[in-house]
Amino acid sequence: MASRKAFEIGIQDNLIFYVCLAYSLLVGVLVPGFFSAANFWNILFNLLPLLIVALGQMVVMLTAGIDLSVTSTIAVSSLVGAYTMSSDSALPLSPGAGVLLGIMFMLVCGASIGVVNGLAVTRLGMPAFMVTLTTMIFFSGLAVWSTASQNIYNLPEFFVDITYQSFLGVPIPLLIALVVVASVSFLLNRTVPGQWLYATGLNPTAAFISGVDTARTRLLAYVISGLGAAVAAVLYMARLETGSPVLGQHILLDVVGAVVIGGTSLFGGKGKVKWTVYGALFIILLDNSLNLMGLSYFLIMLVKGGIILAAAVVYRVQRTSFKKA
What we know:
Blueprint: H1 2-13, H2 15-30, H3 37-62, H4 70-85, H5 95-122, H6 128-147, H7 157-160, E1 166-167, E2 170-171, H8 172-190, H9 192-202, H10 204-209, H11 214-240, H12 252-262, H13 273-292, H14 297-324
Antiparallel strand pairs: 1-2
């Protein structure tokens, strides 16, 4: 009886992974080229930056918040980094120094936007949705205005090669993503602040009474989200070989969808790193297969939006049923 219950728990815990597996097998039969090596690498390199952003979003959602500004954070961070390391820049830096300094500035930029969001939510008591929607609009406009809608090119070859180089046989983008996954997993499962993130989302009042600094915990969540967006910007920028004021503009639905489909609660306090990995993988598989089928962008968005809405409804029904039980 106990083994059967453990089996059922294991199935439920990894349900989205099995859905990804079944979907891949189905699409592989119906869509030519899905199982090709070229498509495998395309799926992988599209998955990695999305996963990194989604992990940051998951941390925020654990506190019952949301960060809509991740796309503008990606854009602004890419411009800061590209300007610093581009050969067209007036900064007298060697390519190596420019890349290191540029990446550092990108991380600082992402963390700073996270601080702005976190302080507005925790100190001013503003709704997370409104705060991050406002910062998304502001920083998106700032990115476009500051560059006159022009991309920044001529990035050092040393930086662009990040996409194609390996370390100990592991592609560098994959290595970066693994470090992020391991870091977030360690934070949530092995540290006190990680437990505070869950407690803050489950019941902020009870957590505060128990001694949890809920304000700092929520601030930490937004900083992590900003850092995740900045790291993703590094991968996007290296692959596209440019800094762009609209970089990442169309991935917000994918980011939120990956977290929600993965099983993280919209009401806080519930979520796992591996669930977000599965959710991001499903979104990428869905997007990739629909593109291979030759569907239009708008139809793809319609399908993804419908799936995300269905997932949100399921979690809402589950929550309501739990309260009534």
